[in-house]
# Entry
Amino acid sequence: MTAAPLLVALALAAHPAELKRARDRCEFGAWADCAGTLRPWLAREPALADEDAVEAWRLLGIAEWHLGDQDQARAAFVNLLSVDPDYTLDPFLVPPPIVEFFDRVKREHEAALAPLRERKRELREQQRLADEAKRKLLQEEVPPTKIIRVQERIYLFNWLPFGAGQFQNGQRAKGTAIAAGEVTAGLVNLGAFVLHNQIAEDRSRLCTAGQPGCSRPPYTDSDRALLGRIEAVKYVSAALFWALYAYGVWDAHQNFVPIVETEISPRGGGALKLGIRF
# Structure
């Protein structure tokens, strides 16, 4: 269904069933059925909305005119004008004789319609002033519109090294400490690995059995002791790196929330209010 037919359908659905039934009868030229529907309905429903009342009296006046009862048509049009003294019939939708008849009724009752028009204008002006006062009151008392920024956090970051999970959770100091520790441990481990390989592969440092200080060839006793210390540094730095990584993953999971709402308020210098949703 396109937008225009949908709007028409909603507009029709908003009116009472009797009014819709009377409109359908008038569209098919069933003037007696139209008038027969409207007369009792208008008699038992005196407090109609202005829009419904105008439409009902308009249809009844047209139907009565087609039925040849101009007195009843005149009464219907007078009731219409009592609701909307400035109303005019559309000459493209209503036959010219009925438009002329309606305009004549309107002229005949001009003296009574003038005070009604003035009263309508006063009511519209009062309503405008009331709306303006309400708008000013709300502007003064209602807090400004809040802006909510929603941030969705990525679960995968909890498993990344170098404090990625802490940085995502807003724990910058802890993330920096973990990242610095892991970088240091990683660099020490890499340096120990490179130094160990350089010493082990340096053929000029090799020795043979019987040489002084070469109890366990092919490395001298001093190089073997040095390689042992480098090996220890390599394992300790690796253990420290993985210990920091494991702690970072555990801590990131402990403080992880999938969605963070940040309320930005223009008052008070842009104060922030955080909300967390799971």
Q: What stands out?
A: Residues 1-14, 268-274 have pLDDT under 50 and may be disordered. The longest strand covers residues 147-152.
